Every structure is written in C-alpha cells, then in structure tokens.
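Hi V.,

Quick status before I head out on leave. The structure for the redesign project is tokenized and pasted below; the design run finished overnight.
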C-alpha cells in the first residue's frame, strides 16, 4: 500500500495536480485506482475541480460554504482515514503549511510528492518529510507562467524531478508530460 502525500506551499496547484494525476493514472492500463483523501478543510474536496469545469460559479459558492478551519475532530477523522485506508494507491492532498495538524494527518503516510511554485520553500517540506519518515518520490516546480513541462529522469534515489506549467482550474492537465510521467512513476511504485 502506498499512501502518498501531495505537499507544498499554498497556491502551488496541488489540487489541480491531484485531479490531473488521478485522470492520468486511470488512463494507464492495469493501474490501481487512485483513491483521493482531501485532507484540508479549505472547501476544495475531490469534487471541486470537476465542478469548476462544469459550473465555476456553483463551485465557488460551494467552496465558500464548505471552507472551514482545522478542528481536532477534522484532523482525527482524516488521520484515521489515511491510517485505515488499505487500497494499493492513496493520494493525500494536504494544505500548504507544514503544520502540526498536517503532521498528524500524514503520520501513517508512506511517501510524499513536493509541488512548489517557490522552490525556495522546499526545505521546510523536506524537514516535514524527514520528521514523518516519508520517502520523497517527486520534486516538481509549478511554473504558472511557463509554456511547457520539463521532465527530468528520476535520479538514482528515484526522485522524479521537473516542472509542470500553468496549473489552472478548469484546464485539462492529465496529458501534460510531467503529469503523465508522475502517474507512470506512481504506478511503477505500486508494482
């Protein structure tokens, strides 16, 4: 079982990446179903991206209605979901701060993907991963103003590196080179 956290600073495109990655994994023949746990009370559940694609006004209204703060009950419920999930591939989409709440939520996770618009913010996330003994499997620059993805082969430590361009809600990203490479990397880890 792989329980993979998608982490990085706020506004790096983690929720967009989560949805594109889910679609890219589902397009790989024989891949395990990518189960998603939304672990941030920001109102962007797994339903959000698809709703934005169909009706952005409704999506924004729902997000505003569902947005909340971390509570002990929320953290406990989500941490239990991560701990008790026994599916082969689980993606855990956390908030953009390496907080005590996120540590509790991710304590039963196994791996971590870093996605950051500001790569200078990664040291705090590496410390988060070290503290929780999470294996880093990808380090991706979210280049909002970029025109194309850049995929660097996984290094000897099996960390996939590169960049993904213009993560924007409502835009299809599942076929972008970095998203596909990450999907294939995750599927290979599950074999």
């Amino acid at each position: 079982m792989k329980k993979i956290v998608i982490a990085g600073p706020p506004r790096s495109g983690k929720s967009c990446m989560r949805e594109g990655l889910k679609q890219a994994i589902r397009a790989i023949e024989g891949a395990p179903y990518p189960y998603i746990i939304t672990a941030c009370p920001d109102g962007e559940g797994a339903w959000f991206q698809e709703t934005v694609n169909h009706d952005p006004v409704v999506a924004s209204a729902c997000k505003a209605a569902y947005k909340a703060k971390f509570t002990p009950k929320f953290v406990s419920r989500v941490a239990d979901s991560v701990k008790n999930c026994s599916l082969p591939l689980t993606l855990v989409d956390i908030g953009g701060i390496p907080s005590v709440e996120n540590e509790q939520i991710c304590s039963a996770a196994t791996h971590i993907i870093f996605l950051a618009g500001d790569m200078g913010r990664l040291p705090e996330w590496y410390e988060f991963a070290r503290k929780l003994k999470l294996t880093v499997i990808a380090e991706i620059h979210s280049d909002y103003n970029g025109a194309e993805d850049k995929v660097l082969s996984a290094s000897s430590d099996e960390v996939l590196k590169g960049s993904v361009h213009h993560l924007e809600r409502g835009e299809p990203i599942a076929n972008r080179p970095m998203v596909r490479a990450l999907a294939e990397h995750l599927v290979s880890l599950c074999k």
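Above is the designed sequence. The chain is about 40% helix and 20% strand.

G. will cover questions while I'm gone.

Best,
W.
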